Prior knowledge:
Structural class: alpha/beta
Shape: elongated
Helix content: 40-55%
Strand order of the largest sheet: 4-3-6-1-2-5
Distance between the termini: 21 Å
Amino acid sequence: MRAGRWAIWVLVAANTVSWLTFGPVDDGRDRFIWQAVAEFLASTTAILFAAALVLATRWRFLEPWFGGLDRMYRSHREVAVAGYVLLLAHVAVVPWRLESPGGTPSGLIAFVGFTALVVLSVGPRMPGLRLLVAISYHRWRWSHRFIGFFFIFSLAHALLVDGVVRSAPVPLAFLLAAYVIGVLAYAYCLLLARFVRPRRRYVVEAVRRLSETAVEVTLCPRRKPITFRSGQFAFTRYRQRGLREPHPFTISSAPGEPTLRLTIKEIGDYTRRLGTELQPGRTAIVEGGYGMLDYRVGRARQIWVAGGIGVTPFLSWLRDLPHPEPRDIQFFYAVRHSAEAICWEDVLAARTNHIGLNAHLHVSSEAGTLTVDQIMQSTGPVTDAEIYLCGPQPMIAALERGFRHHGVPARAIHFEEFAFR
């Protein structure tokens, strides 16, 4: 677990200790213990929701603390889900009173709002709710902005009700600090992010089809290009109807190239429109680069494994390899059919130009699913190798288990979790 995730749970633990050590004084009210427990749950919920709002800012200085923006988003989901579970517990435990005409309605609005956002996020993934909750990415992303709005309603609830936490200065300080930080993070995302985030204007130079399901979008900077390292990704949106929402795509070109290339698989409505409707000459807004996947910090002996469109960061690495490349690199590219091996000619060209690079194309329809045992037939023992993986999540999980089984330590296995939603 990276330091950032530890820090969040340390804050939760510190808040717990503050309630146990410097908790509120019994003021004689009915069901005081239940009230105190309910407020403890609510304060922990506020800390977790504030952390989720901070992680949604995409502040790049936080990336090293979590291991990349992809893991920041995973932590964002984890703490938000944990916070909602505690919110349910708070609602179940708290002694309901109608003595606060402002506090009770604001709390109910916050609870109903958070519940609606959870249903919209989780529903499309659950068989029972999938048919009832069908929402496009555009509408989901628009609705997700309300998390801070309902967070502010929960702050109003905390201020208006007669809480026992007011007699406990230390837990109260934790609670107020969480709300201040969360509201500031939300205000940043809503009002300032568009002016502060590293974004540049580009123009669409070409849209080239690479296969039946993949296209390459080439962008030319209008003025100054973005700064990125090979293997990083960027959020892009276009000044064209239906393509205005920002989506993350790995940059497949090298940093030194005059244009920016995005290699994209058509797996949804948005990506299909990119391949069929995006027109050269359109303005693109590119924000990045993000990501911490970097082979240059690894050991001299490395194994790269790409699955399908997961080849994109490796293409950027291969196009940016130094001369000479001192590392011993074994690159495995797994596809279902040989026609899906996009940019394979670029991989072969890189292999020709770099003595230490070996490339292997694995066609699963002919040779079965790629396994670590098959990889080791070409590489030999893997215990001293640095492993880099990018592809479908089931493939990554299976290969990670396989490499761990064969003695590769977890710290030597690197991959990105690109499922942001």
